[in-house]
Structure formats: C-alpha cells, structure tokens
Here is the input.
Amino acid sequence: MSKMSSLLGFFVGLVLVGVVASSKFEELYQPAWAFDHFIHDGELIKLKLDNYSGAGFGSKSKYMFGKVSIQLKLVEGDSAGTVTAFYMSSEGPNHNEFDFEFLGNTTGEPYSVQTNVYVNGVGNREQRLDLWFDPTKDFHTYSIFWNQRQVVFLVDETPIRVHTNLEHKGIPFPKDQAMGVYSSIWNADDWATQGGRVKTDWSHAPFVATYKDFTIDACECPVGVSSSSVAPENAKRCSSSEDKKYWWDEPTMSELNVHQSHQLMWVRANHMVYDYCTDTARFPVTPAECVHHRH
Here is the structure.
C-alpha cells in the first residue's frame, strides 16, 4: 500500500510540476491602467467605463500552455458601443494573441461575442456568435485552453471555437511565445455595435463589467524571460518529457472528444453570425487554415 501511495504521489508530482493553479485576483493579476475605474468589492472585481476612461488588468506572470478562466457578468442594460475583452497575448510586433471580445448592444438585443486569433502579428480571424443566454444577468465562465495541438475557446465549458495546429500544412501555429492574461473595458462605438451605427449613450454611464473566480492552471514562465529569444527554452520547459508530465499534453487533450465536437457543431449551427472563413468579400481566396480545419 505504501509503495502504491508513493508511486501515486510521484505521478501527481510530475503532473503538477511548474503549474500555477489559483483563484485569487491579487495572486494572479494587478490593475493595468485607470486605477480609479477599478473597483475591488470583496470577492468581486469591477471595471468601470465612463466618458473619461475605461479600465483594465493584467496577469503578473506570463504562461505557456494550460487553461485560463474567469467568471464574468457583462454590462447590464444599454451597453451599445462598449467592448469588454478577455484575452491572452505575447509582446512585440510578431505577437500571438487569443481574444474574447464581448460586444455591447442596445437593451433587449443579444450580446455578441467575437473571438480572434493572432499568429506572428497577423489577426483578421474573427468569428462572432450570439450567446444562448443573457450574459448580463449572471456570471458565466469564459476559458481559453492552449497546448501544442490546439487553441480552444470555451463558454461554460462548451467549446465555441477551435484553432488547430496545421504546421504540417505549412500554416504557422502559436506555440513559441509565452503570453500574459488580460481583461479590459473600453469604448469602441466606431465599430462594436451594428458596425458602428449605434453609438454609446453616455447618459447610461458608468458601464460596469463584474468579475470573480480567476483561475490559471498553466505553465508559468518567469518574468523577464518570456521574449522570443528564450522561446525554445520556455516551450521545452512547459512540455511533457520523460521527467515530467503535464495534463495539457495528455493524448486526450490533443483534440475535442466526441461530446465536445457535437457541442461545437451545435454552437456553429445555431449561434454563429459571422465567420471570416466564409467572408469572400474580405478574403476572395479562402484563408489556408479554413481549407484544412475540420471545424
């Protein structure tokens, strides 16, 4: 029995090497700008937007592979013109980035969520969907899962988008730059609501996004060594080997399971309102990753 326990403990130790798992804001994040628009209300964090400023926060560390999640309750009432974002990003002109952008709307209209993926500084991979619930009435969990095989955007653990590694097709994949985790609220009424036709009504300000339950279960990269010059070391250190095993590198995490695949198909069939892959006006030639993606 003691031998079995020690073996189990050894395996668990391997799985958890270098992983940060926490749920307290102050352990993981810090306000990034407009501190007077940042409210710490017990277990809740609130970001405020008015006609003076928005606000934002960012992680204290950068990460390479794993899963980051927040619970978020979006701006209630008339939120037209506002954008609340939750995203991961590296630094520099050739940065990688994974975006959730929640686009406000007039009262009674559905909230839209836009996702985007940047690889080596190139984005223009927008997908947009209407959520199947009112995200202003209660908290919902928004997550980004990332490993060397795929990037998965999840809403309440339902996958809404998958960006697959297609390097074998000559298509770059974001796997060599550590990323920070960020969130912000700002005015984007030049484009956010009905293409910019509906502007922000400042008489309804302040607009408030409320957060709780911050979770990062990922491989932490020391601050100051997350640049591209040490990317190979970060990628190696955050990948499974004979000496260590990470949960995100397990075979079951290399692609969606059958249930998740069905969930994604349901989301795309019933809630997607825009997909860059089918926008022939913007892209007369179908983007290469769209040709090869299964989803």
